[in-house]
Amino acid sequence: MLVKSPRCSLLPSANSYYSRKRVNKTMRNSIKSLVSNFISDDRGQDMVEYSLVMVLIGTVALIFVTGLGMSVTGIFSTVSQKLEAVSSAIT
Fold first, then answer.
1. Greatest C-alpha distance within the chain
2. Which residues contact residue 24 at a Cβ distance below 8 angstroms, ignoring those fewer than 6 apart?
3. What is the structure's pLDDT at 41?
4. Burial code of 39-75, b = ≥16 C-beta within 10 A, e = fewer?
5. CA gap 78, 72 in Å, rounded
6. Which end of the chain has the smaller Cβ count within 10 Å, N or C?
7. Which band of pLDDT confidence, cut at 50, 70 and 90, is reported for residue 53?
């Protein structure tokens, strides 16, 4: 019967060194492929472009409506002043 001698866990064996090296190389290749796939993937690009266009349209509409509101306020103020003048002239 053969009995294996216990290995010392503090000293790495040659096989574990090459095994770690192979795992590190595999991990590096996996990370490289993930990064290159992420950079070359343009599926979300259309959604980002549409979102930017919608933000631009919303900003322009907000500025336009704010300016239009000021103009309408001025018109109602003028009409109110003229109605008050007519009302005071009648009484």
1. 126
2. none
3. 77
4. eeeeeeeeeeeeeeeeeeeeeeeeeeeeeeeeeeeee
5. 10
6. N
7. very high
The span from the CA of 14 to the CA of 64, in Å, is: 73
Q: Are 62 and 70 in contact (CB under 8 A)?
A: no
**Could you tell me the two tokens for 89?**
């002239």
What was the pLDDT predicted at 21? 74
Token digits for 76? 């109602």
- Provide the mean pLDDT of the chain: 80
**Cα distance between residue 41 and residue 35, in whole Å:** 10
Between CA 73 and CA 71 the distance in angstroms is 5
